[in-house]
Amino acid sequence: MSDVVGGLPGDPGPDPAAIDRVVAAALDEDLGPGAGRDVTTQATIVPDERGAADLVARADGVVAGLVVVPVVLDAVARRLALPRATVEVVVPDGTRVRRGDVLARLTGPVQVLLVAERTLLNLASRASGVATHTRRWADALAGTGALVLDTRKTTPGLRALEKYAVRCGGGTNKRMGLYDVAMVKDNHVAAAGSVTAAVEAVRARFPGVAIQVEADTEDQAREAIAAGARFLLLDNMATPLLARVVAAVREGEAASGRVELEATGNLTLDRARDVALTGVDYLSVGGLTHSSPILDLALDLTTA
User: Could you tell me which residue ranges the Quinolinate phosphoribosyl transferase C-terminal domain spans (predicted)?
Assistant: First the structure.
């Protein structure tokens, strides 16, 4: 695995093995079979030519994904059997940037810089787009006590990077996959016969796993709590109904203990603050990862 730089301060960063896999797959797509080749760069630039390049923001936003830059450069250098390039990060992931800001400076063999260009831009632009979108939600919720959560609606293969980007934008990760948290939804309830039966089945089969339950009505919320659930997804509720359900759950916490509440479904930025002020702990937003446009970034060769 390659060293990573430019991470969000205090954050462990995305899983290095996951980043290595996605970089390898991206380079395979771009360079073709075996070690691969760039027929333009390798025809016009000699292997021992060295140079520098700036990674630059072409739009305002929040930067994320600089951790992938050295990984891509190292992978390209290995494929071309050339020396490693170096990266000087100017601003860390999670930083608000303006159009024209230099994010990082790269130095090394020009072949390595140019062969790596599109792959590192694709990944960093994608991550920065997710972080930028997430920051809008985090800003909208500021002061309410509610946090914005991501979902599993991620780009296949990019989950580790996209969930890291959510954190860079001020959001919070929900479960990483189907393996770490049980989430009882309407189809599970239908299959099991009831909310209670579904919760009991999960507890019997996987006793150490946290259980979250989706509720469409106040009655379902009450049933889930009675069954022992302490995390509810309040799904597709209009704001007045959501407020009533939250109030009912909070009133019962003297007996049940603390219940974490998440609003989910049909959430938009223009109603985010009103939803948060109902007293929920979280708003989950699949659009953070499935609908974020990229943040336009560029790699500008400065010397050759």
Answer: 130-300
